[in-house]
Amino acid sequence: MIDYSERIPNNVGLADDRRLQRALENWQPRFQDWWAEMGPEGFQEQDVYLRTAVDVGQEGWAHFDHVRMPEYRWGIFLSDQQPDRRIGFGDNKGRPVWQEVPGEFRTDLRRLIVVQGDTEPASVEPQRHLGATAPSRYDLRNLFQVNVEEGRHLWAMVYLLHGYFGRDGRDEADAMLERHSGDPDEPRILGAFNEKTPDWLSFFMFTYFTDRDGKYQLGALRESAFDPLSRTCDFMLKEEAHHMFVGASGVGRVVQRTAELMREHDTDHVAPHGGVDLATIQRYINCHYSVSMDLFGSERSTNAANYYAAGLKGRFNEDQFDDDHVLTDVEADHLVVGDTGRITTETLPARALVNHALRRDYTEDCAKGVRRWNRTLAEAGVDVEFTLPHEGFNRAVGAFRDHHVSPDGRVLSDAEWEASVGGWLPSDDERAHVGSLMQPQFEPGKMAGWIAPPSRGINTQPVDYEYVKL
Ligand SMILES: [Fe+2]
Ligand SMILES: [Fe+2]
What we know:
The protein has 470 residues and is mainly alpha-helical. The protein has 11 helices and 7 strands. Helix content is 44%, strand content 7%.
């Protein structure tokens, strides 16, 4: 059970570890300063209908109530310890998991936790201006729910740094609040988290594609032999599911509204009628998917192979892979641009391609939502299908980094790329149009004109519920 009588709600017995408790109580006001400075702009005095974790069990883990965001009870929640849990992969497969950090893996584990932790505040910062232009109170509430939970995910990683990495862990925890998204001097660690989230379509794309990278990273870390990391990631994944729902349903509602406007005005070009063209949505998909693919790192990676060998980071749902989970005698394929300038398959030891395995599952997961959006179009009688671009499209990391590849998978010359890229990524005009649609709609139950209402409200409340008291 989670103890809410403590200054820092937790289920890790913080009261019994005075040194750690004091260290985290020291960090707490700095986190609150960060929230005030870099968290959502405005709305800090308003009551927001937010979910708070009250238990880590399978059922009934969440409680919903109106709360002012600065009073949100950020805390430290780990899933229950599994008795006799064993390492599921790598060279130490079958041995008991670790409750403390082994000295030889200290640097690598700290790095993995820092990189994950950095993404959490890094996704809040670019979203801080969005409240002012929310398409409905329902959406405003969802934005803030995602924001407070990303804040809690930072707490999760900071707990591990403070609790298991001593002095340098504390320094890393402080640095989490010193780097800022898009800061020229102290940027966030990963590229996608330094991009702007200027409008709500970008926000929905971010929660669909980039939070989903988070799901896969957390899933890989949930397999970790370092048990406290595994347990904290397991619980974070429960919260993460809602973030991706916000993205999937958000994009779906824009698609639905566009289809309605297309029929109403008998045109593909709904921008003059206050909508977002399907072609624009496709270009946003191309942009956010390709940037998020970079977050998986190089598909061929010695670091990832070492992490796998050591048991630090596995694959998503490791036990569902139909192999030996050791991967010393297993091969795998990935795509590269060959000497002929054509895309070909390269076969390597599977350990070298662990990042690729994780990313391939991510792509399959992304495709499910795209199919759902296409079903919405088909049901509306619109003969257009969205697609995910080829994995080589618009990449800054990995095998395609130095190549231009079209969304349908053709390797292009520089000249061909320059001539066509404008049709594949959102143009400045298009972004400006989407920006111009961002007018707030705060009447309970009403929606801005560019997005359809959700099919239901949050936690069985009606859509017109007062999710934010303004
Ligand atoms: Fe997160
Ligand atoms: Fe998230």
